[in-house]
C-alpha cells in the first residue's frame, strides 16, 4: 500500500478524517496503523507547538462562604484553581507541590494521555498519591484534542475544592467550526460543604452510610444570592448587547447532575467533552459531573440583568440530596439596575424527559476537526450491569451507622465491587509495567453479569433477594488486545434504586451509539445504532432505569480506570479497569515511569 501525503499545515486537521476513513472503512484492517499514524503526527506536530508550563501549589487556605470561615484545600490560593490555556498540539507541564496535609493526585479529565499514562492521575491506578510535603510533575500532549476539559484531584472528596478548567483552542492558523465569538467564558459548577470534605468522606466510610449532602452549589466558586450571607458572593457576567459569547460549561460538582438556564435566552451547543457537535439549539443545558458543554450564547434581549441558574437533575427522588439552586447574573452593558433580575423558568428537578432529550439529541460533527469515524468491526463485546448494592456491617455499634435494618451501601459492576489496591507498594500501572500483577489485581473481570434478571424492575428492591445481594470486593481488570475495538452495553440496575449514572472511561473517547430506557435488547435496539454521526464523549450519562451502548478502539496501552463520576460511588465500588496490552513495538508501549513518580 502506498503512503498518503498531506500538506503539513493541514495534517493535524485531516489525519483523523482521511486516515481513519481509510483504515476503519476499508475492507482490510491494519492492526496498528492508527496508532502509528497518531505517533507520527504527534512527532510532526511538536515542531509547531508550545510548552505550557504551570506550577501548582496545593495547600490549605481559609475562605469565607455561607456566613462562616472554612478551611479548604486549594491550588495557588484560589477557588476554582488556575485555568490552563493551551492550543491543540501543545505540551502541558504541571509541577505539583503538595503542601497540604493530605496525600493526593491530580487527574486531567478527558485528556487521552496517549503513551503518557503516568500522567493520568487516579490514585493507586496509574500512580501512588503525592505525599504531603512532596512533589510530582505531570507532562502530556494535546495533539488531536480541542475544546473544554478540566482537571481535578482524584483522591477522596478533595476534588470538591481542588479543580479548574483546561481550555484547548485550535492551533494558530486554524479556526473553530462555528462563527467567531466576541468572548470565551468558562462557567464552572462546583459543590460546597460547610465542613472538611476529607472528614465528610471519612465519616461516611467509617459509619458505612451515605455522606452528608453539600450545603450549596457554586458558579465559579461563588454560591450566589439564594444562600445565606451570599448576596455579595455571586458570579456576574457583564456582556454587551448584540454579541455572541462562547460559554464553556463544566460540571465540577461531586454528586449531582444539573440543568442550566439563562432567563429569556437560548443556546446553541457546539461541543461536548471537547468534541465538536452538529449545532443543537436549546434553552436548557444538562450535564453530569465530569461532563463539559460548549454553547454559543447571543445577547439578543433588551438591556437588563438576567439570572443564570443551575438546579439539580434529581433522577432518584427517594435519595436525599442538596436540592438547592445556585444563581449568577448576566448584566447587559447599560443596565440601570440589577436589583430585580429576570428569573429563568427552570425544569422540575425530576424532569427526566427534558434531561433525556438533551442527552440523546446531540450528534457529532462528522468530518469536522478531529472527527473519528465509528469503527465497524467489533472484537470485544461486553455487557456491564452496574448500580448500588448492600454490604455487610463492619461495626454494628457505630453511632448512626449501619444495622440489619439499615444495611450499608455498596456498588458494583457485573457484581464485582471494585477496591483500589492500597497498601500493595505500587500502583496498578506499575504492576503492569513490571509484568508482575500478582497481589495487585487480577485479569478476570467478567464480560457479562453472573446472572440474568429484570435489571430495571422498579419493584426489585422489595420483591427479590437481589436487593440484599452482597457483591464481592475485588480489584479486577478486563484485558484488551492492543488496537482491538470494544463495544459495551452499559446497563443500569434498580437493585437498590434506579438512578442516572455518569460513567467516565479514562484514556479514551468513545462513540455513543444509542441510549434508551428499560433493559437493553439487541434485536430491538441494534437497529437504532447511529454509526454515521454519533456523539463522542469521555463521560456518558446512562439513563435512569436504562442503558447506553458505547464503542471505542483500544489503541492506548496501559491501565485505565472506568468508574461512576458520582464521588460517593467510587469508594463504594462502582468501577473496574481496562488493561490494554502494549503495541507491537516499544514506541507503541507504555514508556518507563518518570524518575519522580511517587512511591506508595
Automatic annotation (TrEMBL):
Cofactor dependence: Cu cation
Catalytic activity from the UniProt record: 4 hydroquinone + O2 = 4 benzosemiquinone + 2 H2O
Keywords carried by this UniProt record: Apoplast, Copper, Glycoprotein, Lignin degradation, Metal-binding, Oxidoreductase, Repeat, Secreted
Co-factor note (free text): Binds 4 Cu cations per monomer.
Subcellular location field: Secreted, Extracellular space, Apoplast
Gene: LOC100812336
Organism: Glycine max (Soybean)
Record has rRNA-binding as a keyword: no
PROSITE patterns to which the protein is assigned, alphabetical: MULTICOPPER_OXIDASE1, MULTICOPPER_OXIDASE2
Protein name (database record): Laccase
GO biological process, one term: lignin catabolic process
GO molecular function ontology, one term from the record: oxidoreductase activity
Amino acid at each position: 500500500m502506498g503512503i498518503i501525503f498531506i500538506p503539513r499545515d493541514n495534517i493535524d486537521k485531516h489525519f483523523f478524517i482521511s486516515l481513519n476513513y481509510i483504515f476503519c472503512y476499508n475492507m482490510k484492517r491494519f492492526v496498528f496503523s492508527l496508532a502509528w499514524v497518531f505517533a507520527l503526527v504527534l512527532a510532526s506536530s511538536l515542531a509547531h507547538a508550545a510548552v505550557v508550563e504551570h506550577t501548582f501549589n496545593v495547600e490549605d487556605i481559609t475562605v469565607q462562604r455561607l456566613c462562616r470561615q472554612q478551611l479548604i484545600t486549594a491550588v495557588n490560593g484560589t477557588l476554582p484553581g488556575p485555568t490552563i490555556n493551551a492550543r491543540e498540539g501543545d505540551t502541558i507541564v504541571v509541577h505539583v507541590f503538595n503542601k497540604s496535609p493530605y496525600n493526593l493526585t491530580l487527574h486531567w479529565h478527558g485528556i487521552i494521555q496517549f503513551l503518557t499514562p503516568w500522567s493520568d492521575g487516579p490514585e493507586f491506578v496509574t500512580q501512588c498519591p503525592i505525599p504531603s510535603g512532596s512533589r510530582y510533575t505531570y507532562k502530556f500532549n494535546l495533539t488531536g484534542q480541542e475544546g473544554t476539559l478540566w482537571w481535578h484531584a482524584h483522591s477522596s472528596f478533595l476534588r470538591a475544592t481542588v479543580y479548574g478548567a483546561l481550555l484547548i483552542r485550535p492551533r494558530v492558523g486554524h479556526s473553530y467550526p462555528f462563527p467567531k465569538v466576541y468572548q470565551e467564558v468558562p462557567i464552572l459548577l462546583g459543590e460546597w460543604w460547610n465542613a472538611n470534605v476529607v472528614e465528610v468522606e471519612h465519616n461516611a466510610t467509617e459509619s458505612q452510610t451515605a455522606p452528608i449532602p453539600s450545603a450549596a452549589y457554586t458558579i465559579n466558586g461563588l454560591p450566589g444570592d439564594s444562600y445565606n450571607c451570599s448576596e455579595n458572593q455571586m458570579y456576574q457576567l457583564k456582556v454587551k448587547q448584540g454579541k455572541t459569547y462562547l460559554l464553556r460549561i463544566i460540571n465540577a460538582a461531586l454528586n449531582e447532575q444539573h440543568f442550566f438556564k439563562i432567563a429569556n435566552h437560548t443556546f446553541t451547543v457546539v461541543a461536548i467533552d471537547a468534541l465538536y457537535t452538529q449545532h443543537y439549539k436549546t434553552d436548557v443545558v444538562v450535564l453530569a459531573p465530569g461532563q463539559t458543554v460548549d454553547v454559543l450564547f447571543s445577547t439578543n434581549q433588551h438591556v437588563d440583568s438576567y439570572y443564570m441558574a443551575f438546579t439539580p437533575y434529581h433522577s432518584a427522588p427517594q435519595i436525599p440530596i442538596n436540592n438547592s439552586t445556585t444563581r449568577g447574573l448576566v448584566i447587559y452593558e447599560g443596565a440601570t439596575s440589577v436589583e430585580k433580575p429576570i428569573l429563568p423558568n427552570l425544569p422540575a428537578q425530576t424532569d427526566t424527559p427534558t434531561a433525556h432529550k438533551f442527552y440523546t439529541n446531540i450528534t457529532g460533527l462528522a468530518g469536522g476537526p478531529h472527527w473519528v469515524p465509528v469503527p465497524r468491526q467489533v472484537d470485544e463485546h461486553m455487557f456491564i450491569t452496574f448500580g448500588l448494592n448492600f454490604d455487610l456491617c463492619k461495626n454494628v455499634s457505630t453511632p448512626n451507622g449501619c444495622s440489619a435494618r439499615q444495611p450499608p451501601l455498596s456498588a458494583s459492576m457485573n457484581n464485582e465491587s471494585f477496591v483500589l489496591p492500597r497498601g500493595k507498594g505500587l500502583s496498578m500501572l506499575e504492576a503492569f509495567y513490571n509484568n508482575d500483577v500478582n497481589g495487585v489485581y487480577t485479569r478476570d473481570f467478567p464480560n457479562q453479569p453472573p446472572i440474568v434478571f429484570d435489571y430495571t424492575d422498579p419493584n426489585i428492591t422489595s420483591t427479590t433477594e437481589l436487593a440484599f445481594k452482597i457483591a464481592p470486593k475485588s480489584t479486577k481488570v478486563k484485558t484488551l488486545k492492543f488496537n482491538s475495538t470494544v463495544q459495551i452495553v452499559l446497563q443500569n440496575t434498580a437493585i437498590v434504586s434506579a438512578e442516572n449514572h455518569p460513567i467516565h472511561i479514562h484514556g479514551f473517547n468513545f462513540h455513543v451509539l444509542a441510549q434508551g430506557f428499560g433493559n437493553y435488547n439487541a434485536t430491538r435496539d441494534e437497529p437504532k445504532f447511529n454509526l454515521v454521526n454519533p456523539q463522542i464523549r469521555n463521560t456518558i450519562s446512562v439513563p435512569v432505569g436504562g442503558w447506553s451502548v458505547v464503542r471505542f478502539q483500544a489503541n492506548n496501552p496501559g491501565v485505565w480506570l472506568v468508574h461512576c463520576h458520582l464521588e460517593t460511588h467510587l469508594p463504594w465500588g462502582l468501577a473496574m479497569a481496562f488493561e490494554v496490552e502494549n503495541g507491537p513495538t516499544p514506541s507503541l508501549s507504555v514508556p518507563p515511569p518518570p524518575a519522580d513518580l511517587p512511591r506508595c
